Amino acid sequence: MNATTKLLIAGLTAALLSACSSGVKLEDTAQGAAPVESRTGDAGQAGTGADASGAGSRGVQQVTLGDKDPLNDPASPLSRRSIYFDFDSFAIRDEYRGTIDAHARYLTSNQGRRVLIQGNTDERGSREYNLALGQKRAEAVRRALAVLGVSEGQMEAVSLGEERPRATGSDEASWAENRRADLVYQ
């Protein structure tokens, strides 16, 4: 073996070894070392990890069950989030005024919340007609909320037309279920 071949083999070996290295330091210095939590302590407190304030040594905060978001309360009027319409209409029926009032009060007192109003239609009518009618239904709900003081920045009205039916039948009950505007909180 001549000197050139030995040099070539040594170079290839060095290149192969450097390609296999991971770059992760196995031994770390004190500056970059991960913090180590001490698990020693009183046997009577072992496993609790909480102090008198409810916050543990790990920074876990106590959860208060009394702070319930009314949007998640099934007994709240805010749990009703669909406004139903008559056939070929975008007039809000009187029976939904309370629902809209409740949502308006919630949105005016929670300025950080936003709502997407999705207008829907039944399957009757052309696709273009249903998109336009769905938009008018969503806009009717948006205007009603705006009259009650909800800022425009908190609302967005879109039409889904007949694309997302809640009921898939082709009877009056199914069509009535699909003629609606849904309030979707974001």
List the keywords.
186 residues; alpha+beta; 4 helices
What does this structure look like?
- This protein is α+β, with helices and mostly antiparallel strands and 186 residues long.
- 32% of the residues lie in helices and 12% in strands.
- Helix 2 packs across helix 3.
- It is elongated, with a radius of gyration of 32 Å.
Write the layout of secondary structure elements.
Blueprint: H1 3-20, E1 82-84, H2 97-109, E2 115-120, H3 127-147, E3 155-161, H4 172-178, E4 180-185
Parallel strand pairs: 2-3
Antiparallel strand pairs: 1-4, 2-4
Strand order of the largest sheet: 1-4-2-3
Using the CA coordinates, give the radius of gyration. Answer: 32 Å
Biggest sheet overview = 4 strands, mixed
Order of helices and strands: HEHEHEHE
Separation of the first and last Cα atoms: 74 Å
Shape: elongated
Task: Summarize this entry quickly.
By secondary structure, the protein is of the alpha+beta class. It has four helices and four strands, in the order H-E-H-E-H-E-H-E.
